[in-house]
Amino acid sequence: MLHSELIAKMPKVELHCHLDGSLSLACIKQLAKNDGQSLPATDAEILEKAQAPETTRNLLEYLQRFDFVLPLLQSYRNLEIAAYDVVQQAAKDNVKYIEIRFAPAQHLQKNLTLEEAVEAVIAGLARAEQDFDITANALICGLKHQPLSELEKLLPLFDTISDEKLVGFDLAGDEVNYPEIKFEKIISAAKNSNIHITLHAGECPHCEQNIIDAVELGATRIGHGVMSKDITAYWETLIEKNIVLEMAPTSNFQTKSITALADYPFKKFYDAGLHVTLNTDNRTVSNTNLQQEYTKIADWYDFQVSDFEKINHYAIDGAFIPEIEKIQLHNDFTADYAKLIEK
Ligand SMILES: O=c1[nH]cnc2c1ncn2[C@@H]1O[C@H](CO)[C@@H](O)[C@H]1O
Ligand SMILES: [Zn+2]
């Protein structure tokens, strides 16, 4: 088993982290104060509302937990602070590159526009980069339950916002009732506009077809993809196309993607050469951090430093950044991991 200090020292890439699901307790309190909103009296009561219990029955019950923080994320100032807060937490996990995702449409309850919501998050990411040794970019999520006419408003943001920190598009939310194929038009439009695409898919039982559809429509990464376990015939394609699976062990158990450790396919995927990566998904809703996710994998599978190095190189390959930045990260990680392995 790997020593926790060794895990802490590993540089990490995190590709799948939701802004609204990852606010620290201190940040939640700050945001409420800024807005003059009241919160439950004790920290324990706040966390009780913000976290999903181990006993969540399915993905939809897990998703209900996001309702608690969203009222706090309706102003430019609070979104900026929230983005800063999540990057700060990632820096504590020794994350060197992170992509943070959020659904702009969820932040328009007061008077923000879609553009302003995205700009606020980008400003918070940029401010955090000044204070921590980390690069942080943003992904925009559409939500699967949104009408297609609303989802269509998201792609133009990639034209109106020229900031390099806006790097990709995702579809999140209710996979149980909304199959990926329903979004064929918008995903194809994103693809045709050369927007990088990652899609939540294969996160609920019997949802494996969504993974195939996501890849065929142009996603280069899959959010979770747990149900790839049931389409072994498709693994060769996933490997050939260098598709990155953004897995998040704690979240994957909470959403009941699977129920028994023996069924969790992370190691099988890894051994077969699939490009698995490790992520938190939601630091607060899942009450975790990247250190804990790495620790779980180290404990369950006797993963070694070199194995973690490998999955981080997969993550770098999948990152939505220019080739030159990938080369730099690959070189830095190779050097840093070599030092950890020597010890
Ligand atoms: O694991 C997940 N699967 C699907 N959707 C998710 C997951 N985690 C968060 N969200 C959804 O993404 C929105 C924007 O961040 C969140 O509000 C939540 O509804
Ligand atoms: Zn997610």
Question: Can you walk me through this structure?
Answer:
The protein is α/β, with parallel strands linked by helices. It has 16 helices and eight strands. The protein has helices at 4-9, 25-35, 43-50, 59-64, 76-92, 114-131, 148-151, 157-160, 184-192, 208-217, 235-240, 249-254, 266-272, 290-301, 305-318, 323-342; strands spanning 12-18, 95-102, 135-143, 166-172, 198-201, 221-224, 244-247, 275-278. The strands form two sheets. The protein has a four-stranded parallel beta sheet with strand order 1-2-3-4, with helices on both faces. A four-stranded parallel beta sheet has the order 5-6-7-8, with helices on both faces. Helix 2 runs antiparallel to helix 5 (76-92) and helix 15 packs antiparallel against helix 16. Residues 18, 20-21, 63, 66, 101-103, 106, 141, 172-173, 200, 203, 251, 255, 281-282 line the site of inosine.
Pick out its properties.
about 15% strand; 4-stranded parallel β-sheet; about 350 residues; about 45% helix; binds inosine; binds zinc ion; alpha/beta; TIM Barrel
Task: List the SSEs and their pairings.
Blueprint (H helix, E strand, L loop, with lengths): L3 H6 L2 E7 L6 H11 L7 H8 L8 H6 L11 H17 L2 E8 L11 H18 L3 E9 L4 H4 L5 H4 L5 E7 L11 H9 L5 E4 L6 H10 L3 E4 L10 H6 L3 E4 L1 H6 L11 H7 L2 E4 L11 H12 L3 H14 L4 H20 L1
Parallel strand pairs: 1-2, 2-3, 3-4, 5-6, 6-7, 7-8
Helix pairs in contact: 2-5, 5-6, 15-16
This protein binds inosine and zinc ion (ZN).
The site of zinc ion has 6 residues, from β1.
